Amino acid sequence: MSTLESPAPVREWITEQARAGREPLEVVAAMVAEGWQQDEAITVVQDVLHGLLVEHARANGLPEPTPVPEPMEAGGSHLLDGGDRKVPVLAYLRHPRVVVLGGLLSDEECDEFIALARTRLQRSETFLLDEGVSQVHEARTSEGMFFTRGENALCRRLEARLAKLCAWPVEFGEGLQVLRYGPGAEYKPHFDYFDPAKSGTAGILANGGQRVASIVMYLNTPDAGGETTFPDAGFKVAPVKGNAVFFSYDRPHPMTGTRHGGAPVVAGEKWVVTKWLRLGEFH
Ligand SMILES: O=C(O)CCC(=O)C(=O)O
């Protein structure tokens, strides 16, 4: 066999292919044609490409990429395994990394979340990283509440389903948050990661590290408005009861394209339950 036999030349060869603009899957196919097992070829290509991205980030003063939850395998099934429930993929984008999911929650689960949260709602706050405090802010006009992780059977069931779907440990997730938006309420576009340049960020990261993914799950279908918007991608997700939008961000930087918001509710109300996943164990 050729140059692909020993690791160092293989890695150099993959690097050359990447620099020449060859698609990763083409590189894998070429390796398979040389006798590599598909899974081993993918592992090596992934590893080399990750190394190149880290080098590039360092050279350009950008944060380095981290692993992220990945509900969909490249070329895999469009019916994802949520353990107790199969979850269909309705749409996905590569950049930003967004996956729209159908029927992640049953109608009964949605109604139960609303019933459990309703009496505990308070005006939502926004964490001001410069000041290190959480405050009511005009950019966020919803009401909300947090469950602690594993607080009740419903939370435990959904947390286990999300952990299975995303192949990300339950312990790396924050408690579920329920939000209610009345008519006209919105959440203006923002990023969910904590900006490393802000003074309050280090304290937040001490518990669980950075956020790396968000899952916004719709508990009802508003009469009009209330889409989850990704303005930099010109992409909007319709809030439909039981459906969800997953998005991941491999570094705390706008280059992830994950600026998103909740558009104003035009008629009716909008309820969501949101899960944020961290890079490490969250207490
Ligand atoms: O309500 C939505 O559609 C988006 C919610 C959101 O942006 C968030 O909770 O970070």
Automatic annotation (TrEMBL):
SMART domains: P4Hc. The keyword Oxidoreductase applies. Signal peptide: none annotated. Gene3D superfamilies: q2cbj1_9rhob like domain. Its cofactor is L-ascorbate. Residues 172-279 form the Fe2OG dioxygenase domain. Coiled coil: none annotated. Transmembrane segments: none annotated. The keyword Oxidoreductase applies. Keywords: Dioxygenase, Iron, Metal-binding, Oxidoreductase, Vitamin C. This is Fe2OG dioxygenase domain-containing protein.
